[in-house]
């Protein structure tokens, strides 16, 4: 009881000192329910009030009673003055975000927080000529001391931080040479705009010029060559050394030539195979054409023409034109094959050819098609037209050039990759949630039926477009092969009947994939993505959970955690425990609203 009252007093001291969003804290309710406070078994484990309009100095006497604290996130506020010395009692602290405030003074108190994983105190006014104490925080994965007034040398002890993935020290007053840091996990490094001199150590030379900006006396790596290296290059190249360079070069060239020949041969073989394929595909087209013609002549119940949903006459074409278009297979999915077709008029469409369509009830079939055609929303891939022949059913969509979210997440990872940052991912989450919420809003039982990352297509601006909505209801076979493994809720037994809550489950998987960049089904230990994220969450190893590309935006970790929580809520095993799509959308939009800077 005494401990609880200590906790309340400590938090109310903080409220008195900082105001802002803490002003909603009220003695009449339990502190664990207060805004920004999270507890485990009655102990306060997290205080998260980023951008909480907190103004003032944190006095001593707050953190002594909050020794179970694991996360303290009070960045983007207006807190000034030194770090309180009793912060040292928070020995369980893993995440400390104080960036963009007006803190000042030294940071020696941080040396007691041995369990810290993420430490961001950038954009304050901290000053110290010795930050070596940080070298004792062996669990650190992300360290940002940027844009402060630190001076002295970069400590050698940073070499001890073997878990470090991001080390950002830019915009300070560090001087001397950069120590020879051998940090194998380091992905992000920046010491720009300090007073560093000398040669960039070998182990750090793989980092780009932008990691070392604004320091003319620094050399080596991506920067100007160092004087001694220049000399070595010019003076000391003996004939022996020259031969040592030339001979491996010749060997390398020979290997390259051999590889080129090998590739050419393989290509030739592949193009021969392709020609055979093309012959086969032209046979299919002819067969399709024959099927269409035979429908026309027999006057069967099926439609013989393309039915357009888009009234724009400039975007119309007839079936013959579609069959004449040069086509390329985009992929084979659950319900059929998708082609990219370039029409003679010059525009491109995606044609989905469905296998085994159920047309036994013509009225029901027509009404399903009509309701699909009526669904128009900025976040749905427009369904342009439809064709139902005797032997095949085609759905014709706008072609989306940028491709799918699946390809964006799991595609090129090497040097050609365009970074997929937090802001863009949040945009995709909002866009796709908007599209799905719209589908759900059109009827109580209307669902998408096959939500997965390959059915979310993107534009260059990272807008998301949901595709393939409602196609599941047309297939005749309820046991259609498994939809993307891992996306389907356990309660779905008939792929033609997917509830809105099952859609919410699939969307939750999409969110988790968006944040972790991991496939929904994990090979190791046969675990699925939500179960894996939940297990990691218990261990509080959020660094291991998020896609490494997102670590650069780790200042937004609070927001990422909120999105992760939404994904986990959506993937609750019991459908009743999952939120409805409109709530999911609102919660995701709230994340963006909270991070958009005010207009002044
Ligand atoms: N309108 C489109 N524009 C561009 N690419 C598309 C379009 N529609 C589908 N695709 C891409 O074509 C490929 C095949 O799509 P398809 O829908 O046939 O299979 P899928 O999405 O893998 O599985 P499913 O049939 O279960 O949806 C996918 O990579 C998909 O992203």
TrEMBL record:
ATP binds at residue 352. Keywords: ATP-binding, Kinase, Leucine-rich repeat, Membrane, Nucleotide-binding, Phosphoprotein, Receptor, Repeat, Signal, Transferase, Transmembrane, Transmembrane helix. It is found in: Cell membrane. It holds the Pfam family LRRNT_2. Residues 324-600 form the Protein kinase domain. InterPro entries: At_inactive_RLKs (IPR050994), Kinase-like_dom_sf (IPR011009), Leu-rich_rpt (IPR001611), LRR_dom_sf (IPR032675), LRR_N_plant-typ (IPR013210), Prot_kinase_dom (IPR000719), Protein_kinase_ATP_BS (IPR017441), Ser-Thr/Tyr_kinase_cat_dom (IPR001245). Its main location: membrane. The chain crosses the membrane at residues 242-265. GO terms for cellular component: plasma membrane. It is a single-pass membrane protein. GO terms for molecular function: ATP binding; protein kinase activity. Belongs to the protein kinase superfamily. This is Putative inactive receptor kinase.
